[in-house]
Amino acid sequence: MAARPLLEVRDLEAWYGESHVLHGVTLSVGEGETVTLIGRNGAGKTTTLRAIVGILRKRKGVIRLGDRDLMALAAHRVARAGLGYVPEERGIFASLNVEENLLLPPHVADGGMSVEDIYRLFPNLLERRKSPGTKLSGGEQQMLAIARILRTGARVLLLDEPTEGLAPVIVQRIGEVIRTLKSLGYTILLVEQNFRFAAKLADRFYVMEDGKVIDGFRADELSAKSEVLHAYLGV
Ligand code: ATP
């Protein structure tokens, strides 16, 4: 693990209305690390990301980004602090074309990638730059969603199931993009059901079950964890 945790979550609880969904999630991500959150459907992975970025407000516990206390910040301020969230539903503007989406990122901070840099990283977005969001394939939408977050200057990326519903060749391409981002020093917290995909990228894993983190291990401990993985993920 990297020397110091950049993102630190401790004893996080969260509710949807009266429904208590997270029961004390503790995890950390070091600077430059790629960490994957795995677990069955409904384990609370998406809720954890939504609570971290402050979209889900009914929560308690500790969330820190470096020296900053994120619990005190509204979602747009969390984004400005450098935390970028790519939700499962992607959140691009369907009526705008690729380039317009890239020129309208939410909350651009210092250090956001230029549109030229984005096109270097995603050559297919350059080819499709005049295509409206409605005409993009699932993979192109996913890449555009990641690209928009890179435009904001976020250095910590929270990616919710980026491979969901995508063809294997596109999954591979998304994997290459994440690897490149990792080599550029981005810190990544990834939620993934596709364990094979995650296993090739992650430095560490956390397993979630019933709104809690029940296990955590490094990539080099994977083989020793096959029973846990089989029990909780069926892999
Ligand atoms: P999945 O892979 O299916 O998205 P997950 O691990 O991300 O699973 P969450 O989406 O975080 O799980 O869901 C955790 C629990 O919270 C589940 O019991 C789910 O039914 C519940 N839940 C999720 N969204 C809401 C909501 N908007 N209102 C009420 N309950 C919700």
Automatic annotation (TrEMBL):
The UniProt similarity line reads: Belongs to the ABC transporter superfamily.
Q: Provide the alphabetized UniProt keywords.
A: Amino-acid transport, ATP-binding, Nucleotide-binding, Transport
Molecular function per GO: ATP binding
Domain ABC transporter residue range list: 7-235
> How is this protein named in the record?
ABC transporter ATP-binding protein
Q: Output the PANTHER family linked to this UniProt entry.
A: HIGH-AFFINITY BRANCHED-CHAIN AMINO ACID TRANSPORT ATP-BINDING PROTEIN LIVF
Which species is listed as the source? Answer: Alsobacter ponti
Offer one Pfam family short name for this entry.
ABC_tran
Superkingdom in the source lineage: Bacteria
